[in-house]
Automatic annotation (TrEMBL):
<protein>
    <recommendedName>
        <fullName>FAD-binding domain-containing protein</fullName>
    </recommendedName>
</protein>
<dbReference type="Pfam" id="PF01494">
    <property type="entry name" value="FAD_binding_3"/>
</dbReference>
<dbReference type="InterPro" id="IPR002938">
    <property type="entry name" value="FAD-bd"/>
</dbReference>
<dbReference type="InterPro" id="IPR053212">
    <property type="entry name" value="DHP_3-monooxygenase"/>
</dbReference>
<dbReference type="InterPro" id="IPR036188">
    <property type="entry name" value="FAD/NAD-bd_sf"/>
</dbReference>
<feature type="domain" description="FAD-binding">
    <location>
        <begin position="14"/>
        <end position="342"/>
    </location>
</feature>
<dbReference type="GO" id="GO:0071949">
    <property type="term" value="F:FAD binding"/>
</dbReference>
Length: 397
């Protein structure tokens, strides 16, 4: 006990490059720094300017515990004390409301991002660095950037989100596929009396979620749209424009959502939608479940984490949780290498074996939930991968 330098690579020698400075990336870097790694760098494509608005994120206890151990106090990012989901379904004309305890807390992207990013030493973060390629140089994984610069590391961690460059390089065949429905989204002015996450399912093919934000109410209305309808509403196909920014939501798209809200929601809920001036939308999409999380690159390795590895449908509520749980596991494995001389490849394989099943399960869960809600089950979509197909087909055709 007490000896730290068992291995030639030593605790100070293993270098880790993290690609992505949103949530999974900063959490990975902070965990590495806390574990004593000194050669840690975060590369983020977008320069500092970040959107100041952001929708709700659900953070499970496992992830909250990782944040706690990083010294990130919940008061910094948990903006409502609620642990409740109020779920209302209308079936055969009867309204049925249940209250469920959510095993976690609610936060928003800006709150959690800020809480993590402000703890990273400025020298660690390189903003405005867009990764374009991964090659080897003198046996080491080497990142190439849009500005022509390069950077080498023993381990490259891609936490670069659902449109991951890392995934495109390591697994070019795993592509996102439109699931046939859209998450229309907005932040309404404060809604009186809204204290919990509320979910409303008036009929198959419609789900409405609304939850309090620090400065308003975050709502999401899920509605089917064929690829042709999507293109008409947002000016480009779901493949070309998976994230619809406010300036792409024109009068026709606004009307489409307002009419659907008026026709399916309560008057109060429809008013929440109508009063929202800034709107966005996301094309709900699926991907083949991951088969691998780590790849040898020269004498080093590259790994995919978070949305880069397994972008999930929003209903799974696993987005931020997968990435941060994987990051904690990865740093535990790398610590065995750095501190006790464990074999790097073996440690990473063990990490993959522990975390891959959860990532696969959450990718498969999305189409099951979507099918149950009657979303995206139309002829315009192929339900996602293998194991989910019988479940969806069985329950909805
Ligand atoms: C600005 C922003 C706002 C968000 N708001 C919400 C929200 O309101 N509700 C919600 O449910 N989810 C939101 N998300 C998504 C949510 O963060 C993820 O679904 C989940 O938490 C997993 O996070 P992640 O860190 O793995 O990936 P992401 O959050 O997608 O982060 C990936 C990061 O990698 C960077 N990046 C991408 N490509 C490159 C590259 N080639 N080189 C360098 N950097 C690169 C991106 O700029 C981004 O910062 C948001 C994401 C972002 C980036």
């Amino acid at each position: 006990m007490g000896t730290e330098h068992h291995h030639p690579t030593g605790p100070r020698r293993l270098s880790v490059a993290v690609v992505g400075g949103s949530l999974t990336g900063p959490a990975t870097a902070l965990l590495l720094l806390q574990a004593g790694f000194e050669h840690v760098t975060v590369y983020e494509a977008v320069p500092d300017a970040r959107p100041q608005t952001g929708g709700l994120l659900t953070v499970e206890h496992s992830t909250l515990d990782v944040l706690d151990r990083l010294g990130v106090d919940q008061s910094e990012f948990v903006h409502v004390r609620s642990e409740r989901i109020v779920h209302t379904r209308i079936r055969d004309g009867r309204t049925e409301t249940t209250h469920r305890v959510y095993p976690g807390r609610y936060t928003t992207w800006p709150l959690l991002h800020t809480a993590l990013a402000r703890r990273l030493p400025p020298a660690v973060v390189h903003s405005g660095h867009r990764v374009t390629d991964l090659r080897t140089n003198h046996g080491m994984p080497t990142l190439h950037f849009a500005d022509g610069s390069v950077s080498r590391a023993d381990v490259v961690v891609f936490a670069d989100g659902r449109a991951s460059t890392g995934r495109a390089l390591l697994e070019p065949d795993r592509r996102m596929r439109y699931a046939g429905y859209v998450a229309h989204r907005g932040t309404a002015p404060t809604v009186a009396g809204l204290a919990h996450f509320e979910r409303f399912e008036p009929c198959p093919g419609v789900q409405f979620n609304v939850a309090p934000l620090p400065d308003g109410a975050d709502w999401t209305l899920y509605l089917d749209a064929t690829p042709a309808e999507y293109t008409r509403l947002f000016g480009a196909s779901p493949q070309r424009r998976p994230f619809v920014l406010p300036h792409h939501v024109g009068p026709e798209a606004r009307d489409h959502v307002d009419v659907a809200a008026a026709g399916t929601l309560t008057a109060a809920q429809a008013a929440v939608v109508h009063t929202t001036t800034v709107r966005t939308a996301v094309a709900v999409a699926d991907i083949e479940p991951p088969r691998q999380m780590v790849w040898p690159v020269g004498d080093g390795y590259a790994a995919l984490l978070g949305d880069a590895l397994a972008p999930v449908r929003p209903h799974t509520a696993r987005g931020v949780n997968n990435g941060i749980e994987q990051a904690a596991g990865l740093v535990a494995a790398l610590t065995q290498v750095a501190k006790y001389g464990a074999d790097l490849g073996g440690a990473l394989t063990g990490w993959q074996r522990r975390h891959l099943p959860a990532a696969v399960a959450s990718v498969r869960l999305g189409p099951v939930i979507g099918g149950r809600l009657g979303l995206g089950v139309g002829a315009n979509t192929r339900p996602a991968p293998e194991a989910t197909v019988p479940a969806i087909a069985g329950s909805h055709r």
